[in-house]
Design a protein that fits this description.
The chain has 359 residues and is α+β, with helices and mostly antiparallel strands. Helices cover 58% and strands 6% of the residues. The strands form 2 sheets. It has a 4-stranded mixed beta sheet with strand order 3-4-6-5, with helices on both faces.
Length: 359
């Protein structure tokens, strides 16, 4: 194999996949995720602070827990997962293969945690649910978390969530911690979109990635599901309803660490069809050796532009209202009243235009 990043492929049953030597996680990270990570990596003393925190966090306890009460993936145990893990690390050029455990849990789930060294954990429910190529995308997803360093922040999030429950009786203490937890969850939801992209780079089969997300949402009933119909749900979720539904969407997503599954599928399909993805597949991507030269301000500008684009392109009623506010649209007061009419028992004011007049 050459080292130029253009001809690295690996033979797998019935197809070839490209390898990405020296790839930086910036290549696949969502802009909002990337800007936060770039800033943290540039922060002086960041590593020292988190190593000090590791003494306060239950990481050692978690490692001992999985070692004692789960099955460690190896050549002798879950060997097919061991092969997938090594393969994913090879594709993304992650030099140190993280330990991986299978834990008994009927809920399909996977996570990557740890401060000093990442640990990947998958549930039996997930292993039993997915076929080989779908599972390959999931393993790639978790290796993407490890390459990005997400495991550190996921561990912090788990710790702070637990801490919030313990200090709930302290006046204002819980509010302060929950504010941090809420911000971390928003970042982590974006990091999940990044990891979905990493999973696609490893599996290089967008159909398998879509199938996996559908199964996580609807179980092992592929004969009853359809990718196009599943993506139409995401479109309906984004554009349907009124301002009441927009508020409910926000309230529904706030306590979650992951975006909704249909949204993840739509975001991944969009990225798979983008020029950014094609450039990576052609061998043109940022390298880890360049990470130290990355501009924090440029990353934040990209993040802000991404959010602005999401708001502009969104069909959600609240996002459309925000766009109109920014554009100075008229009759916004009437539109807001109509959007929230369902929250009151009184009929709409006669002066209000019918809903069909909204743009």
């Amino acid at each position: 194999m050459s080292d130029d990043g253009h001809q690295h492929t690996e033979r797998v049953p019935s197809r070839q996949r490209r390898r990405f030597p020296g790839i930086s996680s910036r290549a696949y990270e969502h802009p909002a995720d990337r800007s936060a990570l770039v800033a943290l990596r540039k922060l002086s003393g960041f590593d020292t602070v988190f190593k000090a925190l590791s003494g306060l966090l239950p990481e050692r306890s978690l490692r001992l827990l999985f070692l004692s009460d789960s099955v460690r993936v190896s050549e002798r145990q879950f060997s097919h997962l061991h092969d997938m893990l090594r393969d994913a690390c090879y594709i993304l050029d992650l030099e140190k293969v993280p330990p991986m455990y299978v834990t008994q849990d009927p809920q399909p789930n996977a996570m990557c945690i740890g401060l000093d060294e990442p640990i990947i954990v998958v549930s039996t429910g997930l292993v039993e649910l997915l076929d080989e190529e779908e599972m390959r995308a999931v393993v790639g997803h978790e290796v993407g978390h490890a390459l990005s360093g997400h495991s550190v922040y996921r561990t912090i999030l788990l710790f702070l969530t637990s801490l919030a429950l313990r200090v709930a009786w302290i006046p204002l203490g819980n509010l302060a911690i929950m504010a941090i937890v809420t911000a971390l969850r928003e970042w982590f939801r974006k990091s999940e979109l990044s990891a979905d992209r990493a999973g696609l780079l490893v599996g290089q089969d967008v159909k398998a990635s879509m199938r996996g997300l559908m199964k996580i949402a609807g179980g092992n009933h592929l004969h009853e599901m359809n990718v196009d119909a599943f993506l139409e749900q995401a479109e309906e979720y984004d554009s349907g309803g009124d301002l009441r539904d927009s508020v409910l969407k926000i309230l529904n997503v706030l306590p979650r660490s992951h975006p909704f599954t249909t949204v993840r599928a739509a975001e991944l399909k969009k990225w798979a069809e983008s020029r950014d993805f094609q450039r990576i597949m052609d061998g043109h991507y940022p390298r880890r050796s360049e990470d130290k030269d990355t501009s924090v301000s440029d990353s934040f500008r990209e993040s802000a532009a991404s959010y602005a684009s999401d708001v502009k392109d969104s069909k959600d009623p609240l996002m459309k209202l925000v766009t109109d506010l920014a554009g100075g649209a008229g009759d916004l007061g009437g539109r807001v009243r109509r959007g929230f009419d369902g929250f009151r028992s009184a009929p709409p004011a006669q002066g209000d235009a019918p809903d069909g007049d909204e743009k």
